[in-house]
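Q: Got a minute? One more chain.
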Amino acid sequence: MMLHRKRLVAAALGAALAMGIPSYGFATDLPNLSDFRKAMDESGCQLIPFADLRGRCIEANAGLHAQDACSAPACQASAGVQENQRRREAWNNCVVRRTATEKAFSDTLSRFESLKRVELRGNQEPNRSYKAAMAAISEKIAAGQPSHAQALRNAKSTLTACSGRI
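A: Always. Here it is, folded:
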């Protein structure tokens, strides 16, 4: 029975690592609680308490609303082939960036799920603090998801329309 349990734990850890989800098996592996508390008061990419995911989100959003991304004009027959190709590349850039941003937030929620399974021994205050912070951050992420999803759908639609004009 014990060997079977060890195999299950090893398989679960392997699956988590393969999916890029950290396995928080020990209290020393936990992210800094102060990062979570700080993130609760933030918005946008700063809402993400994990430095690697926050950095990925910030990088994807840098210049998102520039002319070579989501602020590019839509393709038009009167613009000509070369200009429409430039616009298509801009909208492709927009889709890639918005997808990366969405992935940073979904990866954050996945890490939260992994963290929820960790129970600290002894003092239960850290458990409550982490869970409260995760709940508050998750709520903010959920509130922003519909508008982000709509912006991504719009960008994909514009990209598809551009591709059809070239």
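A: The chain is about 70% helix and 0% strand.
Q: Perfect, thanks.
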